Amino acid sequence: MATSSVRADTVPISGLIQYHQMVVDTAVSPGYIFFSGGGSVVVTDLSGNPVTTLDSGDGVEGIALSADGSTLYAALTAGSNANSVGAITVSTITAPTPTEVTYPLATGDVPWSLAVQSGKLWVSYNNTSAAVSPGTIGDFTLTPTVTFEAATAPSTWSSPPDLAADPSNTGVLVAVQGATEPAMGATFNTTTDPATALAAQVNLGGATTPKCSYEHQIAVVPGGLEFIAACGSPQNENAYSTKDLSVAATYGTGASFPGGVAIDADGTIAVGTYGSPSAVYVYKSDGTLVNVFTLVDPNSLVDTNGLAWEDTSSGPQLAAVEQPLGSLSYSLQVFNQPLVTQSALTLTTPSTAVIGSTIRLTGSLTLSNGATLPSGTSVTITRNGPGGSVPLPPVTPLADGSFTASDTPATTGTYTYTASYAGDTGITTSATATATVTVSLNAARLTLGGPASIWVTRSATLSGALAFGTGTVPAGTKVTITRTVAGSKASKQFTVSTAAGGSFKLTDTPPATGAYTYLASYAGNSTTAAATASHKVSVVRIPASLTMTTSGAVLTYEPTVRVTAHLGATYQNRTVSIYAQWFGSKARTLLKTGRVNSRGDLTITYRAPHSTTFTVVFSGDAHYAAKTVARSVTVRAKVSESISGYYASTYIGGTLYRLFHSNDQMNAAAAVAPDKHGECVQFEVWEYYQGAWNFNVSTPCVALSKSSQALAIFGLSQADLGVPYRIRADYIRSGSDTSNASADSSWLYLEIES
To answer: Cis omega (within 30 of 0) on the bond before 160?
Structure first.
């Protein structure tokens, strides 16, 4: 770490004697620094130029600012306002009589250190009424009225401790008793009322091996999880946990004695020392040392409580109160650029590139704190990879720090580019950045598509395209297509050429049925990778045209059915088979196998006693697929009926009527073919009146005998005389018998006389 020269000369702090504390107020314009000590408050501007002096003769010790910077609080130990805290309105400090009110402590109590947290003003004071351990911490409630609450932070001290509060106002309050060996500390949660201890009083860093003696200044890390104490012995600045006061981190300053510590709002840490050398050290919030400032006067030291940050509109500044050894005079040194000017490099390349293409490298060189790049700044870039290390021409960044470079590697592989900046006068750090790119062959991509299936003897047209990852495919680029069929080692190869844009086509007629695969291949070359794509085509037989007709669909018992099968075009096979299967039967009977005639027909006749399904089967051939068609013929049962018991017959209007006497009975008999014994026949009787036939009566189910016959007897005494009647037998098929359809007999006519 080099020493920075960016600093201001020292400015004497006029009127300041016996220095105690410094606070910086940048919340008001134009901004002030307040110094307590020697019984008053000396006020300067942010550069140390005198402004005014406040509370002369009041024995001012500790000072603190309100959260908004509008009020300065001062611990008053002498004069007419002794044993109180003065509240000065900052905006009035240059008036002839600044606005100030005082908040008294209990009689005899002497204030020492002040801190603002959780909307209260905390004060450590010497409790003169306590016989032992008179150091105590209380608070002023500021709204709605100011009231003092004694001993509200649970602790006792041999003397009033130094106080520090979290600038983020999380409620954390830290107390450390300075100028003692070892230094004792405690932390509090001030969001409760009264405050509660986060970490009870204990020696900083541990009871048995204390890490801090002679504390000179404390500062709370924003967020309240840690605080830093500048300790004279051992010579270090430790960060302590506010939870248990254990050491969380250590900031070393060599052989120098720490005199002050200050933490900026962004967590930047400053430590002031005296010794060899007397200097100010600046750390990032993560503890990284970024700058060291030596004091103008090597015989001076950074005083106790001697550091504070100035957060100005132009950026952070660091104020340090310095005191020559053996002197009671004080001066202010303001470091207007406390953070070191660091360089940072970025380098970006595409993660992948194609061989033969130009790789574009982009980067940026930036300096911290808004610094500009010196004239003539250059960045070197080195390529490491296949072929070893190769330097590229140096590049000069633009005013904004950006730069570009290009390279074209000659072979494939992984290359790492390293950009380097060596630093310059006043810039204390060099910088490097790397980026990696994998150079590969130009990618090639093949697509191939076409029909999923075709009929045998038909042609398949396949379409495809070849594309490169970069660049266009030249017309005439060769693509090989290999045809294979499942179950065979035989193959056939085709070569096609791409059209402009990379498209290509192939029309092929596979020789037979089967599962074919077409594999398209591009061989690639020295700069382009190979590629393949495949497409499957199923070659199937042509659907055959096969139909069948029958001489009827619904016929009466034992019809002769004419069945004609018609076969359309085929390749070689012209033979069909015709089968018959009765309803309800599992057996199928081959009726005929034969070659169709020149019209494509094959006809048979079949006497069908039952309802029958006829099936025609074509077994297929090399080009045409097998096919089966079926057609059903329903065969009704045959029902015969006769009546007896009549005394005469006559014709009425050409219809035969049987004549019965009213005191006779009529016997109706029915026979059903084929044999349906056990199944049902009903006899239904209709009467003719008012010019129409009307239902008269029917029998219940009459079971057919073993000879498939049924008999019903009708009494005629209740019949109308001289009126036409007719009777019919109805065969009703049972639900379990599907072999024949239900059927009726013919009507028989009769008339009843007296």
So the answer is: no
Chosen CATH of 546-633 out of 2.60.40.730, 3.40.50.10090, 2.70.98.10, 3.40.309.10: 2.60.40.730
Tell me the sheet residues that pair with 85: 75, 103
Main-chain dihedrals φ then ψ at residue 527, nearest 5 degrees: -120, -10
Which H/E stretch holds residue 84? strand 84-89
Please give the full DSSP string across 376-442, using - where no structure is assigned.
T--EEEEEEETTEEEEEEEE---TTSEEEEEE--SS-EEEEEEEEE--BTTB---EEEEEEEEEEPB
Cα–Cα dist 324/403, whole Å: 49
Helix (H, G, I), strand (E, B) or coil at 92: helix
Q: Do domains 546-633 and 638-753 have the same CATH topology?
A: yes
Whether the model pTM is above 0.90: no
Please give the single-letter amino acid code of residue 384: N
The mean per-residue pLDDT over the stretch 315-321 comes to 88
CATH 2.60.40.10 fits 343-440, yes or no: yes
Q: Reply yes or no on whether the pLDDT at 5 is more than 60.
A: no
Mean pLDDT of 476-495: 97
d(CA 312, CA 291) in angstroms, rounded, equals 20
pLDDT-based confidence at 749, cuts 50/70/90? very high
Q: How many CA atoms lie within 13 A of 103 on its CB side?
A: 26
Q: What is the DSSP letter of 369?
A: G
How far the first Cα of the chain sits from its last, in Å, is: 147
Q: Which of 110-114, 336-340, 350-354, 596-600 has the lowest mean pLDDT?
A: 336-340
Please, what is the Cα angle at 418 between 417 and 420, to 5 degrees? 150
CA 497 from centroid of its chain's CA atoms = 45
In the numeric block, which tokens belong to residue 41?
């408050």
DSSP label at 209?
S
Task: Please give the CATH topology (third level) of the domain spanning 444-539.
Answer: Immunoglobulin-like (2.60.40)
